[in-house]
Structure prediction request, 280 residues.
Amino acid sequence: MKKCIVAALTALVLAPAQGTWLNDPGNNYEWRAGVELGALQVIEHTIQFGKEARGTRFDYVRDGGQNILTRFERLSAEIHLKPRHTFIALIQPLTVVTDVVLEEDLIVDSTVFAAGTPMDLRYGFDFYRFSWLYDFWSAPDRELAIGLSLQLRNASIAFASRDGEQFRVYRNLGPVPILKFRGRAPLSGGTWAAAEVDGFYAQGKGVTGSTNVESSFKGAILDASLRYGMTLTESVDGYVNLRYLGGGASGQQEDPENPGDGYTDNWLGTVALTLGVYIK
Prediction:
């Protein structure tokens, strides 16, 4: 097995000059793969399950241990149909696990976690995103593209006392429609700058990606990044990336999927600094 891996890597490195690791210039399409690794900082995050006295507005940063750095990673695969269309598949893990001792009572849909309780907290909001872009700038080293994304949220949020006596978990799986923009321009010496934005704000049924909600229900997401990169080889670009990732939802479910009255108010804001590579 090791010999096979070494042979495959050697073949990639010694790929013919007329092509790259993944592509032949004679094709009318181009494959790309992207990886980002780095650190994420939660800058604001509040959550409430249950209206009024049934639920506490809980500050995860101040009281929930989210004031530390969390590992951040992102994987993507693209196919570019020359010269205008690009399709992208993205996997974005986004889970923050912390442990704290409550300084004040925490009420989660009428379940009371008393002050002084050691707690295990899990905020999971992993998502998968599929996007299409139309590039108005057909030059191969430039991009000015707009399009659409469909995001599949995969939420799992848990509050558990360390002794196992009390436990609340909320799960939600559903689609979210998003608008998308991406741009890239060359700089000097093989370097380049780029920006990417996925954003969405809506209120009501359906358009927010949820049909089991009242008309006042609202939701939003903003995934915006700036990056500075360098072409390392014909097959590899490296870059540093600064990203804001945030959003949330607020409103009432008509037929609650989880225990409780179905009211949710959940807003998150994060900043991530990563190193990444594009493989072509």
Remarks:
- The first strand starts at residue 29 and ends at 49.
